[in-house]
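Handoff note, outgoing to incoming analyst
You'll be picking up this chain. Sequence as last confirmed:
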Amino acid sequence: MPLEPKPADFPRIRGALKFYMVASVITGVMLLLLCAEMLLKYVWHLELFAFGPNGLLSFEPVAETPEGLESTGTGVNLSTGILIAHGWFYVVYLFSNFRLWSLMRWPFPRLLLLASGGIVPFLSFFLEARIGREVRSYLAKREADAAAAASTSGAAPAGAPTDSDSDTDSEPVEAAQ
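Most recent structure output, in case you need it:
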């Protein structure tokens, strides 16, 4: 029998899912920017610079030398900034993958699939939608099953209000006057 998440972990799973979904979108956008930057650099031999002598933003040529491609622009190299930012966001994305994977108790190949979302362009967007839908439906099904089991046994489901939990603040204002 495969391992399943504990009901006590459901709130943590919801938090991990939100974190994963945000990290997934940010990493996907950064990966697309990185792909565009690589096309600019290696196909059209251009790099994006900011605050240089040619204006706020400018594309500067990249020179081919015996040692490889070399920047010719001055200012802040945004192409390198995109590369570094994607690397750090990918680390955050991997942490979000691990957190969700471990709480959901999925098999190891699922972690590898999640991690590939930060490497394959557009995959993080598809996985974000699919994993989000899958986890939310799984949690809803487990909670519905627990509520049904509790109602057949006569006990209140965990977290359900009891008669002692009710207070008079929820009554209409007219009744209180």
